[in-house]
Design brief:
27 strands, binds 2-acetamido-2-deoxy-beta-D-glucopyranose, hydrolase, PbH1, repeat, cell wall biogenesis/degradation, disulfide bond
């Protein structure tokens, strides 16, 4: 085929090799470069079609080597069918991830604005090269600069659907200063294959946000699965299965202890937890504010360390009675499964702000190795419907290492 050798190279190359971004009307189409950093093409699409437009990140492999921070989206539909791989230049990400205020955390990808959708059609894959992060982190707790995979920041009226995450760098998703956010059909898995744990690869965390729906998720994460943090309200979480996780959690909140934080109106229902630390629980620092009107219902689980747990002094396990962060009107209904040890519930409320309006109905928790489970309670209303078997000591730990 000597003839072909005479043609200019660009005529022979298949179109898919051509990198970059093309704009047709209000539609920006992004195709992968092959091996270069694709974040400039994606940022170009956000710039040219992020307002009153559509963005198609077509199928194929994309490399993301730079922070993507876009806070000006407006009336925009983003479709992703490709695999986005955040590269493993740890020093770059530690220096350049965007701060998100909360506890000095930061993020690799941040979206904000009004009226936008992010749809992955069950095809989009976010790969964070997490194993590199887990190995260099060496089981430290919160490493500054270790980036959250996706953050919604000052976002309003947003729908995210059909995205798969594998091996994220840190938390999978964070929603902050946002309102009316729906996140459906998300599939997440952070699993370390070395001696070092994933540590802090939460599925979802909210902060200073309201009106959020989370539905149809499957999460394996080694840390909190769905975690509702300070100043969050009206959150509905439904049909989520969590493996190796902290399942459904309010908190941590109340830190710093001189700033009030509030969580109101949260419903968790139709939840399954497998081999997890806890199932339906609340953790606060000895701070100020309140947790009010929370429902955990239809929660089923297997082999959970301490299924129901409440602590006013998480992690330090000291000054528990100094907490003024009041917990009230919390219902646990249809909570069933097996506990790893002989404790079904450990509930310690602060003497400084005892729990009121706790209600329990249809609680059926059996130790996985047989026998009956203890239910330990302190400083809570006596008409809760819970058959407490003893008092819960102050500073009772989140994770048990054997029978009590
Ligand atoms: C977002 O959508 C709502 C409801 O359709 C509309 O009222 C609002 O003006 C839109 N916001 C922007 C910035 O276009
Ligand atoms: C909430 O966001 C959805 C998109 O997920 C939108 O359809 C709906 O109109 C928004 N609701 C309000 C009250 O703006
Ligand atoms: C998560 O990934 C690990 C490692 O690949 C795998 O063993 C596990 O089955 C996955 N979890 C789910 C729920 O698929
Ligand atoms: C619950 O979510 C799973 C995983 O996304 C999905 O396969 C299943 O259809 C959902 N169930 C219901 C009742 O929506
Ligand atoms: C939570 O909201 C309260 C009341 O609006 C505010 O005083 C406090 O600073 C907020 N806390 C955080 C951590 O943003
Ligand atoms: C309690 O929270 C649920 C779930 O968000 C909400 O539907 C309900 O209206 C709230 N109840 C009160 C009394 O605010
Ligand atoms: C609790 O479970 C029972 C039996 O499965 C069911 O009939 C009832 O509707 C459930 N309650 C709620 C509030 O979903």
């Amino acid at each position: 085929m000597v003839f072909y050798c005479l043609l200019p190279l660009w005529l022979i190359l298949p179109a898919t090799v051509l990198a970059g971004m093309t704009k047709t009307g209000t539609l920006c189409t992004v195709t992968p470069s092959g091996s270069k950093d694709d974040s400039p093409s994606i940022m170009d699409a956000f710039k040219q079609c992020g307002q009153n437009g559509q963005i198609d990140i077509t199928s194929g492999d994309y490399t993301i080597a730079k922070v993507m921070d876009v806070l000006t989206l407006k009336n925009c539909d983003i479709s992703i069918r490709g695999k986005l791989t955040w590269n493993d230049d740890i020093q770059y990400w530690l220096r350049n991830s965007v701060g998100v205020t909360y506890a000095s955390r930061s993020t690799a990808f941040r979206l904000g604005g009004e009226n936008f959708t992010l749809k992955g059609h069950g095809e989009a894959l976010f790969f964070g090269n997490g194993q590199k992060w887990y190995d260099q982190n060496r089981d430290q707790s919160n490493q500054n600069g270790r980036p959250i995979s996706l953050t919604l920041w000052k976002a309003k009226n947003v729908w995210i659907d059909g995205i798969t995450w594998r091996q994220p760098q840190f938390w999978h998703t964070f929603v902050a200063h946002s309102q009316n956010i729906t996140m459906t059909n998300l599939d997440m898995n952070a699993t370390s294959n070395s001696r070092w744990g994933t540590v802090n690869t939460d599925g979802f965390d909210s902060w200073n946000s309201k009106d959020i729906v989370i539905k149809n998720w499957v999460v394996t994460c080694g840390d909190d699965c769905i975690s509702i943090k300070g100043n969050s309200s009206n959150i509905h979480v439904r049909n989520v299965t969590c493996y190796e996780s902290g399942a459904m959690c309010i908190g941590s909140m109340g830190n710093p202890t001189n700033v009030p934080e509030y969580v109101d109106d949260v419903l968790f229902e139709d939840i399954t937890a497998i081999h997890s630390s806890n199932a339906a629980w609340i953790k606060t620092y000895p701070g100020q504010g309140h947790v009010r009107n929370i429902t955990f219902r239809n929660i089923r689980f297997q082999d959970v360390n301490q299924p129901i747990y409440v602590s006013p002094c998480i992690y330090s396990y000291s000054n528990c009675d100094g907490s003024r962060l009041k917990i009230s009107d919390v219902t646990w209904e249809n909570i069933s499964g097996t506990s790893r040890y002989n404790v079904a519930a450990g509930i310690y409320c602060s003497k400084g702000a005892p729990c009121t309006g706790l209600k329990f109905k249809n609680i059926d928790i059996k130790p996985k190795n047989g026998g009956t489970a203890k239910i330990l309670c302190s400083n809570m209303n006596s008409d809760s419907g819970l058959a407490c078997t003893g008092t819960c000591p102050a500073g009772w730990k989140q994770q048990l290492s054997g029978n009590a």
